[in-house]
Amino acid sequence: MRKKERHRLITRLLTEKNIQKQEDFVDLLKSRGVVVTQATISRDIKELKLIKVPSQEGGYRYSLPAETAEDVGAKLEKMLKDAFVSVDQMEKFVVLKTLPGNASAIANLIEKRFQDNLFSVLNDDDTVLMITRTEAAAQDLRREFLRFL
């Protein structure tokens, strides 16, 4: 398994399980057919910038760091510069076309960055459909995406 895929799996495990030790990561990954060493997990923890937070069961558990709005905005801008194809707006709908394979990650960042103005976000492999609360919000969103370029 490649590092990027392993990182995605680790991130998913963090949302599903209460992981308190590096050995917990090793065991959970092994149960999913991914054999890693504790040293590999240690490097992954550093690269993912995982933190330890108090656990409801007592002790501490690993968690993803909270992203700031600036972090999300910077990631979104970078992804749009790399994967943007087009953007269009009609009434409360904004459609963002991306290079194949990028829409899901971009949709996730859009939801984090613009959550107050969005009613819903849907995506497939290369398209993000945003439904805004107002037509003015849709116009602002379209302008914002064009500004990122």
From TrEMBL:
A cellular component term, taken from the record's GO annotations: cytoplasm
All residue ranges annotated as the Arginine repressor DNA-binding domain in the record: 1-68
Transmembrane segments: none
Signal sequence residues: none
Gene Ontology terms describing biological process: L-arginine biosynthetic process; protein complex oligomerization; regulation of arginine biosynthetic process
UniProt keywords, alphabetically: Amino-acid biosynthesis, Arginine biosynthesis, Cytoplasm, DNA-binding, Repressor, Transcription, Transcription regulation
Keyword Endoplasmic reticulum: no
Pathway per the UniProt entry: Amino-acid biosynthesis; L-arginine biosynthesis [regulation]
GO MF annotation terms: arginine binding; DNA binding; DNA-binding transcription factor activity
Location(s) in or outside the cell: Cytoplasm
Domain Arginine repressor C-terminal: start-end pairs: 80-145
Family: Belongs to the ArgR family.
Protein purpose: Regulates arginine biosynthesis genes.
UniProt xrefs under HAMAP family: Arg_repressor
Name of the protein in question: Arginine repressor
UniProt source species: Enterococcus saigonensis
